[in-house]
Amino acid sequence: MTSVEDLYEIWSRDSELRETLKQSLDPRGTEWLFELFASLQPRADDVLVDVGCRDATHAIRLVREHGLRGFALDPLPLHVERARAEADAAGVELTVLEGRIEALPFEDASVDWIWCRDVLVHTDVRRGLTECARVLRPGGRMLTYVTLATDRLEPREAALLVDATALEQNSLGAAHVESAAADAGLDQVEVHRLAGEWRERMIEDGTWDPAESLLMLSRLHRRQEALVATHGAAAVDAVLGGQLWGVYQMVGKLCPTVYVWERRA
Length: 265
Prior knowledge:
Blueprint: H1 4-12, H2 15-21, H3 31-39, E1 47-51, H4 57-66, E2 69-74, H5 77-90, E3 94-98, E4 111-117, H6 125-135, E5 136-149, H7 155-164, H8 174-184, E6 186-193, H9 197-205, H10 210-222, H11 224-231, H12 233-250, E7 254-263
Parallel strand pairs: 1-2, 1-4, 2-3, 4-5
Antiparallel strand pairs: 5-7, 6-7
Helix pairs in contact: 6-8, 7-12, 10-12, 11-12
């Protein structure tokens, strides 16, 4: 254990270490996910399903760049409406459907690719991955981005996130997700544990300001009772969970992870 004397001596002469930590590690950003998909060599006219598409901007891009036959799926009518509007505005042929990953509206072995970003933590992951394996053709692949808990995330912190941001507790665990994929018949081809890498890139690019998140969290805690009275507990909790999401990635409590799975023959 470091003594107080040693601690202050270290702090008095740690300028080299601090300067080292100020240097960029050239982190990958969100664009890398599209580069990874391209490296898997999709072929023109392959069938792609974007599960949890939100406004379908990812599906639109993938269909356009690779000449795919695209489907975009989301359980929220608001997202379905937006996705259809975006596809029409982009002039891209994309079928937008309302539905959930746990009950995919596709025939067995009818899909070549599944794109699934920021979805699994909100679902029954075993049911969802079983459905994905069902609709994938043998050799078909699924690219998934999911943010998982690390052993640094304390149980009370996990419970807060689960309640505030509509998560499924079991779906936060890497071991559970990976065993669910294997049991569904999905073989792991690649795994990339990004930790805080994307957030580093967002800070360096100026697209996310952690100081703003920390200010919002501090102000929320100081005025929580009044804010709940005005806006409701659900709204306050949603903001709390949303702002913690990025901060927890930076301090190692959450680990964004990318899987490439292949449907077993």
